[in-house]
Amino acid sequence: MWQARVMGNGEWPRLRVTDWVETRDTLQMWTQIVGKVRMAHAPAINHWWHVTLYPSARGLTTSAVPYGNGSFEIEFDFLDQVLRMSTSDGRSRTLTLEPKTVAAFYRETMLALAELGVETVIHPVPNEVDPAIPFAEDETHKSYDGDAARLFWRQLQQVERVFSRFRWEFLGKTSPVHFFWGSMDLAYTRFSGRVAPQHPGGAPNCPPSVMHEAYSHELASFGFWPGGGEEGAFYAYAYPEPQGYNDFAVRPRAAHYDTTIREFLLPYEAVAEASDPDAALTEFLRSTYEAAAELAEWDRGTLERR
Predict the structure, then answer these.
(1) Angle CA(245)–CA(248)–CA(252) in degrees, nearest 5?
(2) Can you say how many angstroms the Cα of residue 115 is from the centroid of all Cα atoms in its chain?
(3) What is the pLDDT of residue 10?
């Protein structure tokens, strides 16, 4: 049985990946279903920014999605442990977040949307995972520990706060700080303004065209996901990766370049245990950005807030 741990500054929740991996994998499938509902109705935005979820005051939300002459919203409420579906005309439905199969969650979600009059058709197969079990057939993923899910959400809250402050330092094109359900990570991206070479693709069960749109322009990206370390990891990468990027002296000392996935990684626990976690994470974000911007010769004088 996993145990929640809060150490040091008392603000950065501790959650070992191995203690909630089955819940994590189930929750990822659930977020994929909800994310695909948003994707089915939200107007397209460059780099697939219209498909993401966002940390909210209670969990993860689609934000308001246009539908007909109004809108709807779906939120994972990790305080009350419900999936709440609301429409702008005042109607709502809730599903209990509890141990259940992905197949059951899929059926319940689509039925609730139909009852609200939000007619929805999605591609009912997950992306960026292997194997990709169709949602209606997935009886494998069925674990859910509400306390663990709540802790993960509180981790996302802390990360979003620091990422948002870091976002302010850049005047060029940037993404929102948002949650990609395909890879289950909270991400933020900066762009140099230059077109990038076509991405080769390669993500499991993800069409190359998706990657082409996501990586159409030169970028430096940052994120956090519940993998890559004992308690998850922060990452940073550049596309295209400039020569010498992997050898750049990034900070803090706990950060390293992973040659397999071609990203800089910083264990979550290294940040949580630091005397100043915000400063440690900000140091990682700034130094990995410098690696991309300096080596690729971005127009830093124009792009950065001095």
Answers:
(1) 125
(2) 29
(3) 52
